[in-house]
Design a protein that fits this description.
The structure is a homotrimer.
Chain A lengths: L1 H21 L4 H30 L1 H25 L3 H30 L3 E2 L2 H24 L5 H29 L1 H4 L17 H33 L3 H13 L1 H12 L3 H29 L10 H18 L3 E2 L1 H20 L1
Antiparallel strand pairs in A: 1-2
Helix pairs in contact in A: 1-2, 1-8, 2-3, 2-8, 2-10, 3-8, 3-11, 4-9, 4-10, 4-11, 4-12, 4-13, 5-6, 5-11, 5-12, 6-11, 8-9, 10-11, 12-13
Family (chains A, B, C): Belongs to the Ca(2+):cation antiporter (CaCA) (TC 2.A.19) family.
Pfam families (chains A, B, C): Na_Ca_ex (PF01699)
Membrane topology (chains A, B, C): Multi-pass membrane protein
Amino acid sequence: MRAKLFYLGLIASFIASGALHYLHADSTLQFVVSCAAIIFVAGFLGKATESVAHYAGERLGGFLNATFGNAAELIIAIFLVRDGLFDMVKASLTGSIIGNLLLVLGLSVLAGGLKFKEQTFNVKLASHNASLMFLAIIALVIPAVFSRSFTIKETNMLSIFVAALLIIAYLLWLLFSMVTHKTELADQVVAGHAEEEHPAWSAKLSVFLLLLATVMTALVSEWLVGTVHEFSAQFGLSELFIGAFLIAIIGNAAEHSAAVFLALKNKMGAAVEIAVGSSLQIALFVAPVLVIASWMMGNPMDLVFTFYELAAITVAVLIAKSISQDGQSNWYEGVLLLVVYLILGIAFFLV
Amino acid sequence: MRAKLFYLGLIASFIASGALHYLHADSTLQFVVSCAAIIFVAGFLGKATESVAHYAGERLGGFLNATFGNAAELIIAIFLVRDGLFDMVKASLTGSIIGNLLLVLGLSVLAGGLKFKEQTFNVKLASHNASLMFLAIIALVIPAVFSRSFTIKETNMLSIFVAALLIIAYLLWLLFSMVTHKTELADQVVAGHAEEEHPAWSAKLSVFLLLLATVMTALVSEWLVGTVHEFSAQFGLSELFIGAFLIAIIGNAAEHSAAVFLALKNKMGAAVEIAVGSSLQIALFVAPVLVIASWMMGNPMDLVFTFYELAAITVAVLIAKSISQDGQSNWYEGVLLLVVYLILGIAFFLV
Amino acid sequence: MRAKLFYLGLIASFIASGALHYLHADSTLQFVVSCAAIIFVAGFLGKATESVAHYAGERLGGFLNATFGNAAELIIAIFLVRDGLFDMVKASLTGSIIGNLLLVLGLSVLAGGLKFKEQTFNVKLASHNASLMFLAIIALVIPAVFSRSFTIKETNMLSIFVAALLIIAYLLWLLFSMVTHKTELADQVVAGHAEEEHPAWSAKLSVFLLLLATVMTALVSEWLVGTVHEFSAQFGLSELFIGAFLIAIIGNAAEHSAAVFLALKNKMGAAVEIAVGSSLQIALFVAPVLVIASWMMGNPMDLVFTFYELAAITVAVLIAKSISQDGQSNWYEGVLLLVVYLILGIAFFLV
C-alpha cells in the first residue's frame, strides 16, 4: 500500500515537473514541483541502488550510482563547454567535488553516526581513495602553478596532456578496483546481511530500474537547475556561488539522499563510495573529458582553476582524507565535514 | 621531609615574586625570582594534575590542565584585545599553538623516549586530534585566502561566522569526547596503574588544588611576562619574536613541565592531551572567543593571520600529525619536533 | 657461462666508455656506449647490493646502496657549487628527490606489483620516513617563505642554521634507525629467505664489490652526464629540465635498476629504502652539506629553492607518503607515482 502511494507520487510529480518545464510555466511553481519530484526520484534511485547492491555488492552499486549521477552532469557540462562558459563549468565541477566530499559524506556520516555508535568501511579502499584524491589535487595545482609563466598555447598543451594521463589513471583504477584487486577492496560481509529487506526485484530488473531512475533524476535535476537562475538573480547571488553551491547541491540531490539512505542502513561502504567515488570521478574523469572534448570542438578549455577553487578543493580533500583514512566513522566526523562545508559556503557567498 | 621543603619553596618564591612585582622592583631581580617561582608552581600543577588524573582518568586530567592553563591566557588576551593590540594577540596565539605542538610535545616525547623505548597512547584520539587540527588550519587559511579580495566589513563578517562555527565544533567535540564516545577515546588501563604513587589527596581536594595551582601559575606567568619586555628591549628583539616565542614559552612553562613530568611517568596519553589539547583549545576556542568578544566590544578583531604565522602553524600541525597519528612515540620523534621548533624559532628571530 | 658473459660485457663497456670520454670522441658514440655501460654497472651494483643485503639485512644493504649512489652525486655537486652554478645544483637536487620518490619508487612498485599481488614492508619505517620527508619539506619551505623579506645575509644565516640542524637530525636518524631502534624498523623475515639464490661471495668481498660497483657507476654516470648537454642543446631543452629530469634519471640509473631488481625478488623493504632513503639523504644530508661547504668556500649557496621546485618536491612527498604509509604496495600505486612523475615532467619541459 505504502509502496503503491510512493510510485504514484513518483510518476505524478515527474510528469508534472516535466510538463511545467516544457510549458515555460511560472518559475516559482516549477521550482516547488521540481523539488517534490527530486525527492521522489531520489528515493527511487536509492531503492534501485540498494537492489543492485544486493546482487552486485555494495561497492559496485555505489560505483554505478556515482557513474550515472555524474553522466547527467557530464552531459550538461558539455553543453556549457560548447557555449564557452568555462568559468561556470569549473565552478560547478568544484562545487560537485566539495559538495560530495563535505556535504554528502558529512550528512551520511552524521546520520549514520546518530543511529550507530561506530560504522566501518574497507580501510584499504579508503587509503587508495585518499591517494587518488591527492592525484586529483596535484593534477589541478600543477597546471595552476606553472601556467603563471606559460603562454595560452603551453597551458592548453599541459592541460591536454594532464587530462589524458588522468583518464588513463582512472581507467586503470577501474581495472584495479573492479578486476585485479576486487576482493581486497570489498566490504566485509556483515552477518545476517542476506536476510535484510530490499525490493523483490530480479538482478536484471534492478539494473534496468537503476538506469531508469538515473535518467529520471538527470531530467528532473536539469529542470530544477533551469529554475535556479531566476531565483538567484532575484536574491543577487554571484555566478561562483550559484555554480559551486546551489547547482551542486540540487544537481547532486539524488546522491545526497541515496548516500544518507545507505548510511542509515549501516551500509557505510556504499555511502562512502557514492560520495568519495563521485568526487574522484568528477576530478579524474569528467573534468579531463571536458578538456579533451573542448579541444576537439576547437575551443580548448584549460585545467587552470581559480585560487579560491583550488583552496576549497584542497581543504575538502585534506579533511575528508583525515576523517576517512581509518575506515571508521562516527557522528562527530560528520559534524567536522559539515562545519568545513559551511565555512567554504560563507566564504564563496561573500566573494 | 622532601615534600615539606617543596611546599615551603613554593610559598616563599610565590610571595616573593608577587611582592617584587607590585613593588616595581628591579626587573632583573623580578625576572630571576619569577623564574624560580614558575618552577615551583609548575611542579605543584603537575602534582595536582596527576592526582586529578588518578581519579578522573588521564585524559580528563589533561583536559582540565589544558583548560586552566589556557584560561589564564584567555584573560590576558582579552585585555590586549580591549587595547586593540591585535598583532600581539595573534602572535601570542600562534606562539602558543606551535609552542605546545612542537616544544611541549617534543620535550615530552624526547624525555619519555629516553626513559622508555616506546610509549603508546590512544590511536583513535590521535586520529581525531589530527582532524581537529586540520579544521583549525582550514579555519585560519580560508579567511586569509579570501580576505584578499574582501572589504574590511566582509572580512569581519567571515571571521565572526567562522568563529561561531569553531566554538560550536569545539563544544560538540567536548560532548563527543567526554560523553558519547568517552570509552573509545580512553587510554588503555596499564597493568599496576592503581598501585602507582601519587599525592594522597581526596578527589575533591585534588580538584581544589588543581584550581589553586592554575591560578598561582597564571599569576606568576603574568608577573614573569611583565619583566620580559624590558629584557627583550635591551637585546633588540622584535615584537613578533617576543609574542610568538618568549611569551609563549614562559606563559606555557607550567604545561611544559606538567607534560614532561607525565611522559616520564609513562603517562603519554595525558602528556599528549596537554600539548595537543591545549593547541586545539587555543585555535578552536580561545581565538574564536576573542573574535566574538572584540566584536561585542565594538572593535572587531578578524581571524586573518599573517602569512608567516600561517606557515608556522601549518608546518607545526603537519609534523605533529605525522608523528602522533600511529599512537606511538619514541625519542627520535621528539628530536624531529624540536628541530622544526628551532627552524621556526630562528626564522621568526630573523624577521 | 651466463655470468662470465655478463662480467665480460661489464669490463668491455666500462673501458670503452672511459676511453671514448677521455679521447673526446664523437658525442653520439659516447652516449650510446655509456648507456650500454650504465646497464652493466647497474646490474653489477644490484648483485653486490643483494649480496651485502644477504649478510647485513635488507635495510642496511639499501642504506649502503643509497649512500654510495649519493656520494657520487655529492662530489659532482661540490664541483658545481665551487663554480657558482647554484641553480643547476638545486635543479639536480630537486630532480634526484622527485626522481627517487616517483620514478624509482614507481617503477619498483609497478614491476613488483605485476609479479606479486601485494608486497609488504615495515610500516613503522614507512611512518618514520614520512615524518622525515615532512621535515625535508619544512626545511625547504620555511627559508623560501621567510627569505622574501630577508636581506641576502639573513637568508644565508637562516640557510646555514637550518642546514646544521638537518645534518644533526640526519645523524641522529642513523643512530635511531641503525642502533637504538634497529629491531623495530627491520623487515620481517620472509620464510625461506635464507635459501634464496645470491652471488656466492663472502661478506667482505661483497662489501668490496659494492664499493667497486659504486665507484664504477659514479664514473660511468659522469661520463654519460657529460654527453647529455650536447644532446639537449641540439633538441633545445632548458637547463631546468636537463638538471631536474635528464641528469637525475641517468645519474640515478643504478638506483633505478637496483630497486626494480629487488622489488622483482619481493624484497620491497630494500627497494623502498633505496628510493625513499636516497631522497631523504639528498634533502637532509647532501643539500645541507653543500650549503655549509659553499659557505666555507666563501661563496655561500642558500637553501631557497624556486617555487616550481618546491611545488614539485611537495607534490612528490605527499603522493609518496600517501602511498607508502600503509606498508603495502600493489601495481596501481606504482601507476599513480609514475603518472605524477609524468605530469611534473611535462610541466618542467614546458617551463
